[in-house]
């Protein structure tokens, strides 16, 4: 009798004081999702990794961790995000978790999608996320904090 090997993947969308995450099994079954944040003044990277990230890793024991391209040069350097990323990669490697970084952005039929279109596509793939989908924002509105969940899930599509 052949047993299917279940592969759990944790995808993260990192921000300096928060991260959105999704946990997927065999890239088709959504197990968990959410946004974890820390709004304290000092050492947000340490709190996010030590308390929030370790709980996720202990609970789900993923085989792989998917992150945005950390080597991509941005116009404005962000040392807080860099420290957070460094600590997360170190924690994953200490637990022998494979760290994956998608090379190219998610595409749909040859065109690069907007952030909202990506989120809608993710919600269509994982129907349970449809109720979490924020409405399309206007130019004067700030981004909804739940959009980070959809950005993390979109990383899985660019990984395929």
Keywords:
alpha/beta; five-stranded mixed sheet; two-stranded antiparallel ribbon; 7 strands; globular
SSE layout and pairing:
Blueprint: E1 8-15, E2 18-25, E3 29-37, H1 44-60, E4 64-66, H2 79-94, E5 98-100, E6 107-108, E7 111-112, H3 115-125, H4 147-159
Parallel strand pairs: 1-4, 4-5
Antiparallel strand pairs: 1-2, 2-3, 6-7
Give the count of helical stretches: 4
Biggest beta sheet summary? 5 strands, mixed
Count of distinct strands: 7
Rough outline: globular
Question: What class, by secondary structure content?
Answer: alpha/beta
Q: Span between N and C termini?
A: 28 Å
Rg result: 16 Å
N-to-C order of helices and strands: EEEHEHEEEHH
Task: Give the strand line-up of the largest sheet.
Answer: 3-2-1-4-5
Mean pLDDT: 83
What percent of residues are in strands?
Answer: 15-25%
Query: Which stretches of 5+ consecutive residues score pLDDT under 50?
Result: none
Helix content: 25-40%
Summarize the structure.
The chain is of the alpha/beta class and about 160 residues long. The protein has helices at about 45-60, 80-95, 115-125, 145-160; strands at about 10-15, 20-25, 30-35, 65, 100, 105-110, 110.
